[in-house]
Amino acid sequence: MKYFFTILLSVLGLLSHGQIQKGIVLDEAGNTIENAYIVNVNSESHAHTNEFGLFSIDKSMIGNSLKVTAFGYKKKNFTIVGTENRIVLEEDIFRLNEIVIQQKVSALNVISKIDLQTTPVNSSQEILRKVPGLFIGQHAGGGKAEQLFLRGFDIDHGTDIAISVDGIPVNMVSHAHGQGYADLHFVIPETVEKIDFGKGTYYASKGDFATAGYVTFQTKEKLENSSISFETGQFNTLRTVGLFNLLGRQKKQSAYIATEYILTDGPFDSPQNFSRVNLLGKYSAILNYNSKFSIMASRFYSKWDASGQIPQRLVDNGTISRFGAVDDTEGGITARTNVNATLSKPIDENTFLKANAFYSKYDFELYSNFTFFLEDPVNGDQIKQKEDRSIYGMNVELNKQIKNSDWDISFQLGMGFRADATIDSELSHTLNRTTTLENIKLGDIDQTNGFSYLNSEIKLGKLTINPAVRLDYFKFNYQDKLAPVYNNQSETEVKVSPKLNFIYSQNNNLQFFVKSGIGFHSNDTRVVVQNDGKQILPTAIGMDVGTIWKPFPRLFVNSALWYLYLQQEFVYVGDAGIIEPSGKSNRMGADLGLRYQLNDCLYLDADANYTYARSTEELKGQDYIPLSPDFTTSGGLSFQKWNGFSGGLRYRYLKNRPANEDNSIIAKGYFISDMNINYDYKNVTFGFSIENLFNTEWNETQFATESRLKEETSSVEEIHFTPGTPFFMKAKIGYRF
User: Fold this and answer.
1) How big, in percent rounded to 5, are the helix, strand and coil portions of the chain?
2) Is the pLDDT confidence value at 5 over 70?
3) Distance of alpha carbon 526 from alpha carbon 442, whole angstroms
4) What is residue 98's DSSP assignment?
């Protein structure tokens, strides 16, 4: 009998040791915490929480002790009380030593969480700067989408980076101004909860425009408090923000309204008269079985005047100042309305579904003059670009995980569509914004993209293999309203994009990766139909090899060597209404980043990026890619929650770069420093910030442009630029309630 009980207890012990325990990790307000790290102290098994804060941990039994850590929360020891466990964490300062490098393709995204928490943003421009190596420039009065630079690309306004907010695509296909045009000004920075980014062509869920990379933003589900803030500064600048919690601290549902209003004249001799208003409302609810539903609606409207790009020769001879203008009748109006519904639904402990459906109404009208009197010596070369667009779409993704003692496999099966219907996409020659001298292009554009993808992650101990494939279908329609007879042109194309990534995690502090994949960006519909459907979806092939490493508990280092090949493509130049051929190109480079926590309050970060970019079909010396930056770096020192104070000092540097193919015209680089300091006293925050701390003279955007002034007899090709902001001081006061 004694032996029988011994054997029985041993068997029960083994069975208990093999049990799987489940649970959920929440913060004190009831928000679920993603990527919390759970370790069983007794068996040393471990797990991470998913998007719903849920986890399941094997080799665990009732009475075992769990150690739970999450970035920005206090550590907690929790004793398992049953098969379902509810763990609540308290907020705390951010400690880098609590970061666990996860065994997944997007492990580097933890950088954005660190940066967003240690150096919060208060402008839509600063949001994009949270992506390491991404530089931006504004050159049309503050209301136009920024020019983007990443991995040796002059991305223009978004041709080679896919951007989305809550699953709503930001990039505009076949846009009146340029392919992929991405205007993020409808985002209120204070509502951003999470930034997800990835560089390269390696992500099956990202399709059109995801060649240099992607950036996705997620807005907050709920607000802890309501708040109002008022900000004022030089150049007649005013900004107000209101965030209003409508339902208090209910655990099952939340709702809030956010609004932003901005006015500024800018530093220019001719005032910008810039104004922008944003309004966002969001309702979220936790349904049965931890399902989440939210619905969001937003409205954005902006209006501005602009001084435009000015020629260097007029500044050199003293005719105008750096902040002067040749044609100050430039500017525009734009608006966007978004409606988005999302659902996240766990089906069982290893399966969940995500879906969103969206609609956007977009209006755009822009007046520009890049060449002054080159084409029309009498009236000038002002152009109008205008469109009226509706976007419909849906994304659905099913996630499934299969666990075994020796391996772990997860699948993501996704599908969806996006349909753009643009009415009266227009390019016209105008005078003083009021008179249309000539219609250059006018037509209706309908473009549809249907897609599906299968992504899998196979974990074999320390090695994760990530094979994936994406399938895209495109249909392009263009009705030319300037044609003498009805003419509706149409083309279709299918694209298959395979991916294969390897991640080797030596431990929680060291990871190696090799990423590879094929991607693409679509061409403008007007290119597609004029070119008889050739080069509709030019291919991009990329590879990354790198590491993520924590050599010390408070030091986080990431590095990568990368390569990207672009197939020949045809580019639609929206400013001229023409097709401009562009050949094949190679880009290769290196990324290096570090995050270091000096103590509980001080954080240091720096990123450096080098790129070698050349056209492969041109002679040596004639093969430079205009405006492709070969070296950039950014970083800073920030401090948080030090006796009520927070703030930081930041820098960004962009090296000189070629402005044309033979490098005979140089776009000057710059080194800019900004600083800010804030003080919290009870429910009140006082803030003070300075952009361009040392009043550096710099050019925000530059182009090698051929232009002619009214009094000139011949044209001149040289740098035309928009000056960067000089010393710019702002003060802020905010109140939480």
Assistant:
1) 5, 60, 35
2) no
3) 11
4) G
